[in-house]
Amino acid sequence: xxxxxxxxxxxxxxxxxxxxxxxxxxxxxxxxxxxxxxxxxxxxxxxxxxxxxxxxxxxxxxxxxxxxxxxxxxxxxxxxxxxxxxxxxxxxxxxxxxxxxxxxxxxxxxxxxxxxxxxxxxxxxxxxxxxxxxxxxxxxxxxxxxxxxxxxxxxxxxxxxxxxxxxxxxxxxxxxxxxxx
Length: 181
Description:
The protein is mostly helical. The protein contains five helices and no strands. It has helices at about 5-30, 35-65, 75-95, 100-125, 150-175. Helix 3 packs antiparallel against helix 4 (about 100-125).
């Protein structure tokens, strides 16, 4: 499609940027003067998780439905983790409730594991794979931005960002309960 050369670099840069932003927030939250960062993580962390998961879901739908990239088997497994995560976080946002961390960690952790396996399979395609490649081989790279960012890499960044946001919320709660900040 005509938009893909413009959308892929934005999604690739955004996926990397979000991971670094979340890592920065985790580190900054430890500083006693970073009350605004702690508030962002505790009050708006779940909204940020939803934004990441919803963007990843929209990105995967963009690639499959608009650009017509056929998802491979491992892409489907990543979607199986990402879509419910986005929906559950969205429902929690609408109902103004907190989604239990065990659901976030389970879905994001499983998705991250599949993303890591899929990405390394793209890097080293000559190995025996779990992917049968009936429709599309899991070693095919539809997107390659900056020489290393592919669709599984972007999905992995999204899963990692969600996990890091959850870990940051736990860390801030721990620091506040003990009066360390």
